[in-house]
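Moderator note: this is an archived Q&A kept for reference. The question asked for a predicted structure of one protein chain; the sequence and the answer are reproduced below.
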Amino acid sequence: MRSRRGRRRSRATHDIGAGTVAVIGVIGLTIGLAALMLPAATVTSARHAAATAADAAALAAADVLVGVAGVEGGASGVTWSGPCGAAQSVANATGAQLTACAIDELVVTVRAEIATTFGPVSATATAGPPT
């Protein structure tokens, strides 16, 4: 293709702006993938936090149940209303809600729940003396 003055145009002039379009496409794709991964990352993080809260709550309840931590105080000086009260206190301290607490002899099973924007996430933990 020739211009008015008889010079030949280079092919590079036809590709001006192609890199910008490609970069904008890659940025859009990256933002889209991040938006798709956000719910999974949020729920996974909350699931780990709920599991940690449940583990700590179950251990606290088992400690109270077997007498390691006193119901009327103990090393921390905190007063609980039994093993499930201790579990509730620990769950609340970790940012979770205790939704279940069951005692079977010396074994305590608790369920902790954490609310997310994508719905509640819960975890269950059991603690007791070694068998």
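Archived answer notes: The CA atoms of residues 20 and 117 lie 36 Å apart.
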